[in-house]
Amino acid sequence: MTVVKRLAAVLCIIALITGCGSGASEDGSSAQSGTQTAETTENTGSDEAVQTADMSGFTPVGLDKCDLGNPVTRDTGGDPSALVIGDKVYLYSGHDVSTDEEVSKAIYNIPEYVCYSSEDMINWQSEGVVMTMDTVKWADDTSAWASQVAEYKGKYYLYFCSWDKSGKQSIGVAVSDVPQGPFVDIGEPLVRGAVTKPQTSSFNDIDPTVWIETDEEGVEHRYLAWGNGIYFICELNEDMVSVTDQNGDGKITSGLDITEGDIVKRTAGLKEYTEAPWLYRRCDDSGNYTGPYYLFFAHQWRESIAYATTDDLMSGEWSDTKRIMFPTATSNTNHPAIIDFKGKTYFIGHNGALRGGSGFRRSVTIQELVFNEDGSIDLMEETAAGLSGETVKITTGDGAAVSHEPFVNSVADADYPYSDMKIGMDIGQTDTDALWIIRPGRSDPDDENLVSVESENKPGLYITEGGSNTAVLAQDMQGTDEMGSKQTFKTYAVDEAGSQVIFESVSAPGTFLVAAGGELKLGTVDEAKANPFIIN
């Protein structure tokens, strides 16, 4: 049912029950002569006193809300990976549980890996915990850093990374008979951080990615790549739990090519490679791999997403690096996973868009990835709607649309969290600057008359009561009740058809979103009803 039809239906029912305005109101409170008055209260969210609002003739109504789209689950977890088995996709991530204090100290607390499954990329079922770090005797109990699962000859291999007892990040592998685990670690690192050269930090050896295929000469290759700051790649033996001795010297070493070592440093040619590599190759209509290999990776800091291509993973030259996504609006990191499923290609990443989210309490996002005819990929925006969410425009009667100021997410950590981005009427530069998602009210998701309004192309940023009768676009990084109230509004219909609505601030009751002079601010009920909003 559309927003307009639903509002009209609600108003008709109320009119029949209440005798056109007398008696009980929709929320169960008593109202005399069809008048609902907001009592004068202390305004904790604004610098100005709240005035009593005469709500004569207005009825609280519930707008249609969207609880779909991104993030795809309501659990915190980042560094996603995915595996397609037949008609089902298995999605894996670490489970972020960092406390506020740990977030303030930039500490990751990730004690386990979790799994979800889906047959349509939209509805995800939890498969539970697939491995806890306290079962990995060589690793840190709270450091389930990035992973990827690969299937090979009926078994499943979870390649992961964690701090080893020497204080270096190392690459591990655990094995299971089924994709949903549990996975059992082999008892020691597959690649110890002390082996790879050079060592520019204690966390060079993170973020494993796997690629398995048979080449044109019928030779099977099982590639494992990883790295922060430095990109490493090697081949695995058929057992999938040991590195191939490519130069035949009887030991596993690293070098600039396979004549020098079995683990090859291949950063040269990659522009501003940071971490989070993901290997991928496209398929033709028959399902056969074709064209160059793609390396997707986190690029620069804060992390954008970029890619480069090569014709040979072990020794081919890299193409020019191309950025395809700027940093997210809510997380300092991102981590790409690219899969094909039922004829489409998907980009899986993470942001910090949940309440209390950040780069240390991340959440998984999914959107379609589109290739140009020549195999290139254009710059993509983040999307709150993702694959299944519904966006709306919020306009006034003259057609002016609520939008946020145009901005590219900053690469400077000091600019975050975003807390006061400008909102106004027709101030955006692109169509998506004026697209919004009506979410359940953050202060009380069960109250149908409450809403929170999220930006489509800046996921995790909401229309927020900013004090001094201002409305701003902001993130709720702490997840506090106070911020939840600031990002929640009560909706009223102002006409019989239910096609026009006004929004009352929950944190500053008696004040309403008002479009005036090209601005979006908080004002009186009279100002709001003089220029109500239309949701379309």
List keywords for this structure.
single chain, 536 residues, mainly beta, 5-stranded antiparallel beta sheet, 36% strand
Shape verdict: elongated
Separation of termini?
13 Å
Question: Compute the gyration radius: what is it?
Answer: 26 Å
**DSSP summary: helix tally:** 4
List low-pLDDT spans.
1-50
Please give the largest β-sheet.
5 strands, antiparallel
Strand tally is 37
Helical proportion, percent range: under 10%
Q: Which structural class fits the helix and strand makeup? A: mainly beta
Taken as a percent bin, the fraction of beta residues is 35-45%
Average pLDDT: 91
Structure described in brief:
By secondary structure, the chain is mostly beta strands. A hairpin with a 5-residue loop joins strand 11 (155-163) and strand 12 (169-176).
3D architecture notes:
It contains 4 helices and 37 strands. It is 6% helix and 36% strand. The protein is mainly β and 536 residues long. The N terminus is likely disordered. The longest helix has 16 residues. The protein is elongated, with a radius of gyration of 26 Å. The strands form 11 sheets. Strands 5, 29, 30, 33 and 34 form a 5-stranded antiparallel sheet that branches.
